[in-house]
Write a structure and sequence with these properties.
Number of helices: 10
Helix content: 25-40%
Structural class: alpha/beta
Number of strands: 13
Low-confidence stretches: 1-44, 46-54
Mean pLDDT: 82
Distance between the termini: 50 Å
Order of helices and strands: HHEEEHHEEHEEEHEHEEHEHHE
Length: 422
């Protein structure tokens, strides 16, 4: 019943949106029509007075209708995110915990991993980790980045502050999901203005396939917000470092995670062994991962690279060009817009049909699909493909690659949404 009520409210809200928008458009059209009539120079003074009166009326409407539309949009948007986001289903319980790297900044890393089957949402003794590690600080940081705060629209992301990640907080690692008592590790770099939380549902899906995801939250000023080890909040600041300095800091944090986490995880969970280690990233995180992989020593034992919509233009002259091969096996997945831009990198590039840039994080899941796809008129938040299906196929492909390390494996290319590109 609550779901039916919520659905009904959203439909009514959508109707109101449409009605007010049409009235707004009608007001503007009417105003322009009467202006043309007034400018035509009619000889009848009485007719001219009527036209002028009508013009004054429609000018008033031209002010009121947009204000009404904005008020309706604000109310409707607030209603639309009730009971959102909806947590995607997974077959395996997933745990989540946050660690800090032992550097001067205490760079945070959020881990996602398979946990014991007894740890699930129905167990009252289990605490579920929040979606946003820092609550409203995180959601407000994301809102600031897209200028929602300046427009008074921070509430559009505020609901994420209280959302559940669907992951068991600090749950034990489930070794039954490992191969030969080993779990592979993927160290992942967020995009420009991202953070370690905004792909939580995607990473949860990946972890359910039997791997550990380590989402690094960078301290170079490009995270929407982060908290340093001294407790200071570092907000997004694109001028904190130059582009080259940003990329260097990001790559060094990835490499530190590659070195530190296997030993730390084996210390925390003596029964496990870390198997293959790969690095990856989305958008600006992709060149960060490429730089880390290319600059890693042989002792780092990085066996592969996984890239989502790599922003290769942000390499600042320090990376191979678009279309280059890599010395380490590399798989790249591109959205519709990146595929149109002919972005290619590594041994295998696959276009994920119907995916937009936001599909490589959780953006399409933050609100009802109709809202997120409408927003995609302005920003590439959600493509026409089913967002849960996109994450599922990306996770299956990544799991196959991280295990067999072969980009040409048919299991890596098995997704129905995937299109191999030359």
């Amino acid at each position: 019943m609550p779901q039916l009520l919520s659905c009904s409210i959203r439909l009514i809200t959508l109707f109101i949106y449409t009605a007010v928008l049409l009235q707004c458009v009608d007001g503007f059209v009417g105003c322009q029509h009467h202006r043309r009539c007034s400018a035509s120079g009619s000889s009848s003074s009485s007719l001219q007075m009527v036209v002028e009166d009508a013009t004054l009326l429609t000018r008033s409407q031209a002010i009121m209708y947009p204000l009404g539309f904005l008020a309706a949009f604000r109310t409707g948007a607030a209603i639309s995110v009730i009971n959102q986001p909806q947590i995607p289903p997974v077959d395996v319980a997933v745990g989540s915990t946050v660690l800090r790297l032992p550097n001067n900044y205490g760079t945070r890393v959020r881990l996602f991993y398979p946990t014991t089957s007894a740890a699930n949402n129905n167990d009252a003794a289990v605490t579920m980790a929040p979606y946003c590690t820092d609550g409203r600080k995180t959601s407000d940081g994301m809102a600031r980045l897209v200028k929602f705060d300046a427009l008074g629209l921070s509430f559009l992301l505020a609901h994420l502050a209280n959302a559940s990640s669907g992951c068991v907080e600090d749950g034990p690692i489930d070794l039954s999901r490992s191969d030969d008592d080993e779990l592979p590790l993927l160290v992942y770099s967020h995009g420009y203005g991202g953070n370690m939380d905004m792909a939580t549902y995607f990473f949860r899906t990946m972890a359910s396939k039997g791997m550990i995801i380590a989402a690094v939250e960078h301290t170079d000023g490009t995270a929407s917000s982060t908290v340093l080890k001294d407790g200071e909040e570092r907000k997004f600041n694109e001028y904190l470092m130059t582009g080259r300095q940003q990329l260097t800091r990001r790559a060094s944090e990835i490499l530190e995670a590659v070195d530190f986490l296997p030993k730390e995880l084996e210390r925390m969970y003596p029964a496990i062994n870390i198997g293959s280690v790969m690095v990856g990233g989305t958008s600006y995180g992709a060149p960060s991962a490429i730089m880390a992989a290319n600059g890693a020593s042989t002792n780092a034992n990085i066996s592969g690279v996984i890239l989502h919509d790599p922003a290769l233009g942000m390499g600042y002259g320090m990376l191979p060009p678009n279309g280059a091969k890599s010395k380490i096996p590399t798989v790249t997945y591109t959205s519709d817009e990146y595929n149109k831009a002919n972005v290619r990198y590594g041994d295998l590039t696959m276009h994920v049909r119907g995916a937009y840039h936001g599909n490589f994080v959780d953006a399409p899941l933050w609100a009802p699909s109709i809202i997120m796809r409408f927003l995609s008129i302005l920003i590439p938040a959600a493509g026409p493909a089913n967002p849960v299906g996109v994450h599922e196929q990306l996770a299956e492909s990544a799991a196959a690659f991280i295990r067999n390390k072969n980009p040409a494996s048919p299991y890596v290319m098995a997704g129905s949404l995937f299109e191999f590109v030359e």
